[in-house]
């Protein structure tokens, strides 16, 4: 198994303002662009050649990763001029693959943090003789996901859209966003138009009698589609709950990158990440949060489960709890922002002017 496709073209709308200036896979998680963790895990599993299917802010990827040699990979980049959906994006990069028709090709979504045993998924694909194999995971409440029931051999029997009633919840297995395709199957996806693998390709293959195999792997799995999930994923990488060989430092309660300045009495806990060229002032408390490059947290600020964008400034004694602060924003002293509030890039909040919580 030497080839993979990474789908990194999404606009990351649910992650705004984090994705205003940065494509979703390039937002730092545990100190490096999230995509770095995916690439490193793929390489550790034996993948050597990866084609990145890009679209939104496509010009950002190649200058950062280059040809991939620093990661022991051969990377190529293909840009969609118009959004093609998951299936269309896969088909759009097919000409860059070197695999023979019967060879397996690994496919990842660029916003899933997972502990998936990649080699086991490939082995399942080979031993089952499947045309496509899917990573499935179990969730307590599957109503927000498409369900993927399987028979007692793991063969997929249906693809069910998000269930609305208890009777429709026939399984707790969902599509976890990683696949192995035989190369020949990729070539059957219609070219030049939007195609969804979830809504068109997979159901169509099943209807045509193709063999789709599911492998349930219920290790760590998190969709990083929302700011709150992204912050949690970053913290879990630092804490060691989510596996990655790309975390730039020892796992533990905190990760402070080189060139950051942290006051001796500042308290950093819960997997907090402090990026390069950041400044954390005296007496500040940060728990389960991420502070991106060049941001400043002034003395006495208290920050929990929040993300501070690059170059932002948080005023003295300000409290953030579950907040997302866009790049370059300025939050004055003695403010209180809670419960998922998002402050846009370059916004300015005067001192003592804002108190936001769910009970007000």
Break the fold down into its secondary structure elements and pairings.
Blueprint (H helix, E strand, L loop, with lengths): L2 E5 L20 E2 L2 E2 H11 L4 E6 L6 H5 L8 E6 L5 H8 L11 E6 L2 E3 L3 H11 L3 E7 L34 E10 H4 L10 H11 L4 E5 L4 E3 L3 H13 L14 E3 L4 E2 L4 E3 L2 E3 L4 E2 L4 E3 L2 E2 L4 E2 L4 E3 L2 E2 L4 E2 L4 E3 L2 E2 L4 E2 L4 E3 L3 E2 L4 E2 L5 E2 L4
Parallel strand pairs: 1-4, 1-6, 4-5, 8-10, 12-15, 13-16, 14-17, 15-18, 16-19, 17-20, 18-21, 19-22, 20-23, 21-24, 22-25, 23-26, 24-27, 25-28, 26-29
Antiparallel strand pairs: 2-3, 6-9, 7-11, 8-9
InterPro entries: GMPPB_C, Mannose-1P_guanyltransferase, NTP_transferase_dom, Nucleotide-diphossugar_trans
Family: Belongs to the transferase hexapeptide repeat family.
Pfam family, one: GMPPB_C
Task: Put the structure in a nutshell.
With 360 residues, the protein is an alpha/beta fold. Helices cover 18% and strands 27% of the residues.
Descriptive key words:
6-stranded parallel sheet; 27% strand; single chain; 7-stranded mixed sheet; 29 strands; 360 residues; alpha/beta
Walk me through this protein's architecture.
Belongs to the transferase hexapeptide repeat family. InterPro entries: GMPPB_C (IPR056729), Mannose-1P_guanyltransferase (IPR050486), NTP_transferase_dom (IPR005835), Nucleotide-diphossugar_trans (IPR029044). Residues 4-236 form the Nucleotidyl transferase domain. Residues 253-332 form the Mannose-1-phosphate guanyltransferase C-terminal domain. By secondary structure, the chain is of the alpha/beta class. The chain has helices spanning 34-44, 61-65, 85-92, 118-128, 183-186, 197-207, 227-239, and strands at 3-7, 28-29, 32-33, 49-54, 74-79, 104-109, 112-114, 132-138, 173-182, 212-216, 221-223, 254-256, 261-262, 267-269, 272-274, 279-280, 285-287, 290-291, 296-297, 302-304, 307-308, 313-314, 319-321, 324-325, 330-331, 336-338, 342-343, 348-349, 355-356. Helix 3 (85-92) packs across helix 6 (197-207). The model has no long low-confidence stretch (mean pLDDT 91).
């Amino acid at each position: 198994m030497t080839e993979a496709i990474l789908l990194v073209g999404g606009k990351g709308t649910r992650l705004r303002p984090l994705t205003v200036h940065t494509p979703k896979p390039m937002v730092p998680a545990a100190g490096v662009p999230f995509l770095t963790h995916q690439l490193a895990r793929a390489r550790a599993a034996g993948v050597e050649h990866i084609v990145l299917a890009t679209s939104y802010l496509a010009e950002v990827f190649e200058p950062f990763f280059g040809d991939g040699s620093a990661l022991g990979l051969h990377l190529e980049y293909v840009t969609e001029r118009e959004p093609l959906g998951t299936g269309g994006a896969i088909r759009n990069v097919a000409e860059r693959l070197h695999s023979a028709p019967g060879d397996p090709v690994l496919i990842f979504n660029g916003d899933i943090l997972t502990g998936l045993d990649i080699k086991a998924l490939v082995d399942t694909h080979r031993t089952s003789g499947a045309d496509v194999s899917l990573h499935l995971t179990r969730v307590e409440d599957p109503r927000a996901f498409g369900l993927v029931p399987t028979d007692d051999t793991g063969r997929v029997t249906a693809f069910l859209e998000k269930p609305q009633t208890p009777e429709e919840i026939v399984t707790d297995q969902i599509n976890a966003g990683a696949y192995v395709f035989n190369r020949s199957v990729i070539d059957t996806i219609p070219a030049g138009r939007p195609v969804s693998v979830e809504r068109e390709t997979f159901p169509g293959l099943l209807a045509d009698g193709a063999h789709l195999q599911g492998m349930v792997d219920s290790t760590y799995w998190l969709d990083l589609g929302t700011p709150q999930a992204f912050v949690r994923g970053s913290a879990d990488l630092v804490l060691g709950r989510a596996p990655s060989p790309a975390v730039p430092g020892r796992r533990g309660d905190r990760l402070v990158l080189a060139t950051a300045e942290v006051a001796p009495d500042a308290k950093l806990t819960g997997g907090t990440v402090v990026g390069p060229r950041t400044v954390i002032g005296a007496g500040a408390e940060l728990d389960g949060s991420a502070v991106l490059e060049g941001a400043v947290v002034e003395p006495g600020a208290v920050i929990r489960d929040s993300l501070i964008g690059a170059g932002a400034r948080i005023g003295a004694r300000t409290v953030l709890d579950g907040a997302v602060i866009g790049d370059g924003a300025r939050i004055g002293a003695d403010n209180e922002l809670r419960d998922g509030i998002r402050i846009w890039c370059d916004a300015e909040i005067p001192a003592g002017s804002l108190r936001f919580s769910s009970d007000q």
